[in-house]
């Protein structure tokens, strides 16, 4: 399994509070992604990064920001959490860019976030 | 990215081959077919991908039709642990996002 961890694994917070989720990889992959998964919507991309300090928006980026100050860490921040952001959040890394590799993405175990 | 169509659910007997179909009739020439699965409460797991040739790895085989408009994922000897949602995705292999549809929920039964 790819070396990818997420923290925290579970979090309960209140509306209006800031929340930061961390994704850490030991594979030295260039690409990292944040997805959220909700019943009826499947997995949807929030933001992704294609290198240190290089990020781009996904399809559901409103209310989220990201930062990547070093290769191994990709942070997802909810500046002011809302109940609609209650979800399971998955981080992924991709071997894309490594010689001979395609866009295989490897996912972390997920963070279950509840916003009350 | 092109869209895919998969049956919402399938059953398979333990020990038998599971054949999961996927239609991607609008696939472009530079798009690959990827398969992932998600076991309940876990992150999605990469299985296999291909462009136009059939592919096999330790987990599964991928058969892509000659016109590339459809494909089949084959789990040769399904076990109870293969019960999961299987996603067929087409992607241009340029490092961008994967678009997950609803997938096929495979139930392997004893």
Task: Describe the structure in brief.
By secondary structure, chain A is an all-beta fold. Chain A is built from no helices and eleven strands.
Number of strands of chain B: 9
Q: Which structural class best describes the helix and strand composition of chain A?
A: mainly beta
Q: Report the sheet with the most strands of chain B, covering strand number, pairing sense and barrel closure.
A: 5 strands, mixed
Distance between the termini of chain B: 37 Å
> How much is the average pLDDT of chain B?
92
Shape of chain A: globular
- Biggest sheet strand line-up of chain B: 1-9-8-3-4
Q: How much helical structure, as a percent, in the residues of chain A?
A: under 10%
What Rg of chain A do the Cα atoms give?
14 Å
Q: Radius of gyration of chain B in whole Å, from Cα? A: 13 Å
Q: From the structure provided, what is the oligomeric state, counting identical versus distinct chains? A: heterodimer
Main β sheet profile of chain A: 7 strands, mixed
DSSP helix count of chain A? 0
Beta-strand residue percentage of chain A:
over 45%
Report the helical percentage of chain B.
under 10%
The chain pair with the largest interface is: A-B, 25 and 21 residues
- How far apart are the first and last residues' alpha carbons of chain A, in Å? 34 Å
Using DSSP, what is the number of strands of chain A?
11
Shape of chain B: globular
* pLDDT < 50 stretches of chain A: none
Low-confidence stretches of chain B: none
Word description of this protein:
The complex is a heterodimer of chains A (116) and B (110). Chain A is 0% helix and 57% strand. Chain A is mainly β and 116 residues long. In chain A, strand 7 and strand 8 form a beta hairpin. The radius of gyration of chain A is 14 Å and the shape is globular. Chain B has 110 residues and is an all-beta fold. Chain B has no helices and nine strands. Chain B has a five-stranded mixed β-sheet with strand order 1-9-8-3-4, with no helix packed on it. In chain B, strands 2-7-6-5 form a four-stranded antiparallel β-sheet, with no helix packed on it. In chain B, strand 6 and strand 7 (70-75) form a beta hairpin. Chain B is globular, with a radius of gyration of 13 Å. The model of chain B has no long low-confidence stretch (mean pLDDT 92). At the A-B interface, strand 5, strand 9 and strand 10 of A face strand 3 and strand 4 of B.
